[in-house]
Amino acid sequence: MYPEHAHNTPALRSMQVHQPAPLAPAVPYAAPVVPMQPGPVPAVASVVLPDGRVVTGYAIEPAMPEAGAARPAVSRAAVNVALGGVGFLAVCGGLLLLTTFITALAALVTQLITLAAVIFGGWIAVQIFSSNRHGAGTTVNIRKAVIKRNHFHQ
């Protein structure tokens, strides 16, 4: 299926082999010797296990954190400033909600007034243009002109 003399280009590429360079041996750094009094030798404790074995060793006290690493107390002024900022944000949010409520209430009142005007105006129009009364319709005299059932007569 494949020709025998086909050139395979990846196999013809030259390869470079990198040899690792040895590291220099680590030179231990000698800490300066500071003369000091030896501490007290801790007492050796022996514990007898339930199976009869005896374990001997030094008692280890739990490590206590250093006194300088304790977190400093927060100043009273910083607490007051933070609480004042939170209170200010609460007041601003409340005023924003109050303003939104008042705006919505004003829009509702405006729409109710408009609806009442449309309904009342429609009722007036029905009263004026209804043909149920007297069979002749409504007559309105305006400056010598007569409007009778939507017809203009002079």
Please characterize this protein's 3D structure.
The chain starts with 8 loop residues before the first helix and ends with a strand. It is built from 2 helices and 5 strands; from the N terminus they run αββαβββ. It is 38% helix and 14% strand. The model has no long low-confidence stretch (mean pLDDT 76). Strand 1 and strand 2 (54-58) form a beta hairpin. It has 154 residues and is α+β, with helices and mostly antiparallel strands. It has a 3-stranded antiparallel β-sheet, with no helix packed on it. A two-stranded antiparallel ribbon has the order 1-2. The radius of gyration is 51 Å and the shape is elongated.
Features:
154 residues; alpha+beta; three-stranded antiparallel β-sheet; two-stranded antiparallel sheet; 5 strands; 14% strand
Which helices and strands occur, and which strands form pairs?
Blueprint: H1 9-12, E1 44-48, E2 54-58, H2 76-129, E3 139-142, E4 145-148, E5 151-153
N/C terminus separation: 110 Å
Name the helix and strand elements from N-terminus to C-terminus, one letter apiece: HEEHEEE
* Contiguous uncertain segments of 5+ residues: none
**How does the overall form come out from the CA principal axes?**
elongated
- Proportion in β-strands: 5-15%
Trace the largest sheet across and list its strands.
3-4-5
Count every beta strand, where a strand is a DSSP E run of 2 or more residues.
5
Rounded mean pLDDT is 76
Summed up, the helix count is: 2
Overall helicity: 25-40%
Rg value: 51 Å
Specify the structural class: alpha+beta
Q: Largest beta sheet, briefly?
A: 3 strands, antiparallel
